[in-house]
Design goal:
132 residues
């Protein structure tokens, strides 16, 4: 348990350093920056920040599934509480929910959190530069 916790802590610290570096460069979402298309998790960080600011309504606006990663974290840290089969089923349900919410948000023309703007991607800009 201790080794797993240490590995997880190191992973989280590495992710914080990585995303801090990207944020410093002006990149808020690597997938969105690269492709111009929001990922299914877009809005998750803003949701957690809103919750920390005691604004749960805003948190659910940014991403309605933001509490789910906390449950996944608990299942990872305490592997004996939930059976392996339940974890597989639960993970499948969570992934399905993320894609349902993603498609729903992508289809909403008024949604500004999840966007489809490939012309603003790094790949498109690189293509434009190479094409000149």
């Amino acid at each position: 348990m201790r080794k797993k916790f240490r590995e997880f802590t190191l992973f989280i610290l590495a992710m914080i350093v990585f995303y801090s570096f990207l944020f410093f460069l002006g990149v808020t979402c690597p997938i969105k920056a690269l492709t111009g298309i929001s990922c299914p998790g877009c809005g998750m960080t803003r949701a957690w920040i809103s919750l920390l600011r005691l604004n749960p309504r805003r948190a659910f606006y940014y991403h309605p599934l933001f509490p789910l990663p906390a449950f996944v974290l608990m299942a990872y840290l305490y592997p004996n509480i939930v059976s392996y089969k339940s974890k597989k089923i639960g993970l499948g349900i969570i992934i399905g929910l993320f894609f349902i919410v993603y498609i729903w948000r992508m289809a909403d023309p008024n949604n500004t959190i999840v966007v489809f703007r490939p012309d603003q991607s790094l790949l498109y800009q690189a293509y434009q530069i190479l094409n000149k």
